[in-house]
Design goal:
The protein has 472 residues and is an alpha+beta fold. Helix content is 29%, strand content 24%. The strands form four sheets. Strands 1-2-3-14-4-15-21-17-19 form a nine-stranded mixed sheet, with helices on both faces. It has a seven-stranded antiparallel sheet with strand order 8-7-11-5-6-10-9. The protein is globular. The two termini are 41 Å apart.
Length: 472
């Protein structure tokens, strides 16, 4: 019997339950990292907020704007820390390593946008003595999850005079919250006959913002006017200013521990701010690496990585090109294509954890699980790997060997059954630049819901994975 057990141990692949492997010191370190993540997430519910808070944090840790360095034509030296942001919605930071840049860069790439509701350009209207805001959902949402739930307003408005106004309403305990109404079950006969994806339509995702009319019997749209009066008094804006705004409706409330044992974190926007924050924490803690290391946090992944802040833009290539210029002795020693083709990226994105309530959607042997460490996805895509970036076997070997050598608990999986659906990440856009790339991240339950669930031990193992990769 012992021989059979030895054979199984030596020949079979088995996922490890990560909690069982933590030392007392690691448990304390994990608590510190997860508490820091929750605090950062609570104040970073939009891309702009995430970039703003990232810059505040990295500048305290010695990072300087690459624009200033580039304008002054200052050469970059080993250990220098620089960053570059674009439109306040995407950012890349680098620490110059000991090896020359043309030996390649170790990159961690994640995205900082999340599914949400955006306000339309002219959102405010009144009907039946209720003032409401028209929205346009962003990314892959289940629309029925956004009704009858507490919501908050986050965003920026540029007034006619060019002044930038930042708005956050619904997060402070003294703030009002906002809500989208749903029909009561007593009158939901017609709704019950519809498919679940059609029960709530996009055009019905209208946010209630006011209900008290202004005290003037001769006015029309009296509730709408009350709302605009209050907004004008607090922010100095008019209805026209909504046209020059980026305002997002997100779930209200803070990240919370889940379960009597507090093993999970429930929050809005784990996808993909959990990997973004962990990547940020890892590069700040890594010290001076052997190879130059980059953390790239992009926008618009949830709608295809489009636009000049998405991963399909040339922002990352532009960032690397400036680094090559400023680390080259004669500004021609290093070719940016050589750098990219010798680089490796961990595409840091979340994966779907196996859900025992919906196990028919998963293939159990090739799923990732809560509490079993950082998840590796060799490929994403849909059905016949459509839209995937398929990592090479040699890259898989490098990554798994690195994790094994550093006693980091990892698991491998894919996004559900083959013909069930699928999804994508920024990996394919990094691969287009010639970068070797594989998806590495944290398994989630409730992905894309207003409340997503992540395991604290998976977050910790992912932090360790990113850190050793950056240092390697």
């Amino acid at each position: 019997m012992s021989e059979v057990k030895d054979l199984k141990k030596n020949l079979f692949y088995e996922r490890t339950k990560a909690w069982d492997k933590l030392t007392d010191k690691q448990i304390e370190e994990s608590k510190t990292i997860n508490d820091g993540y929750k605090k950062f997430l609570d104040k970073s519910k939009t891309e702009r907020e995430f970039v703003f808070n990232t810059i505040k944090l990295i500048e305290k840790n010695g990072y300087v704007s690459l624009k200033d360095v580039y304008l002054n034509k200052q050469p970059l030296q080993i250990g220098d820390k620089v960053y570059l942001e674009s439109n306040e919605k995407t950012i890349a930071l680098a620490i110059i390593g000991k090896q020359p840049l043309n030996s390649g860069i170790n990159m961690v790439g994640a995205h900082i946008d999340s599914p949400r509701l955006d306000l339309k350009p002219l959102p405010l209207y009144e009907e039946s003595d209720i003032a409401m805001l028209k929205t346009h959902y962003y990314g892959g949402v289940k629309k029925f999850q956004w009704v009858a739930t507490p919501l908050a307003i986050h965003g920026v408005i540029y007034k006619a005079n060019g002044e930038k106004v930042e708005i956050v309403i619904g997060e402070d305990e003294k703030d009002p919250i906002f809500v989208i109404s749903d029909i009561l079950p007593h009158l939901a006969k017609d709704q019950y006959t519809k498919k679940i994806g059609e029960a709530i339509t996009g055009e019905s995702l209208n946010v209630i913002i006011g209900s008290i009319p202004i005290s003037d019997d001769d006015s029309t749209d009296k509730v709408k006017l009350t709302v605009m009066k209050l907004l004008n008094e607090k922010y100095g804006i008019t209805e026209k200013d909504f046209i020059n705004a980026e305002i997002e409706i997100v779930p209200a409330g803070k990240a919370r521990d889940v379960g009597i044992d507090r093993g999970l974190i429930g929050a809005y926007a784990h996808d993909d701010r959990v990997c973004s924050y962990i990547g940020l924490k890892a590069i700040l803690d890594a010290g001076i690496p052997n190879k130059t290391s980059i953390l790239y946090l992009s926008d618009k992944e949830e709608i295809g990585s489009v636009g000049n802040t998405g991963a399909q833009s040339d922002f990352l290539e532009y960032f690397v090109s400036i680094l090559t210029t400023l680390t080259s002795k004669e500004n021609k020693d290093i070719n940016v294509k050589d750098v990219l083709y010798n680089s490796i990226m961990l595409s840091a994105d979340v994966n779907a954890a196996f859900d025992p309530n919906f196990k028919n959607a998963y293939e159990a042997n090739n799923s990732t699980y809560l509490g079993r460490g950082v998840g590796i996805m060799k490929y994403t895509g849909s059905r016949g790997k459509s839209g995937a970036s398929d990592a090479s076997s040699q890259l898989m070997y490098k990554v798994t060997k690195l994790l094994d050598e550093n006693q980091i608990i990892w698991q491998v999986g894919e996004l559900g059954k083959v013909d069930q659906g699928g999804g994508g990440t920024i990996a394919k856009f990094a691969a287009k630049l010639g970068i070797e790339v594989v998806d590495v991240g944290i398994p989630l339950l409730n992905m894309h819901a207003p409340l997503e669930l992540a395991s604290k031990v998976d977050i910790f193992m992912t932090y360790l994975a990113f850190k050793v990769f950056i240092q390697s």
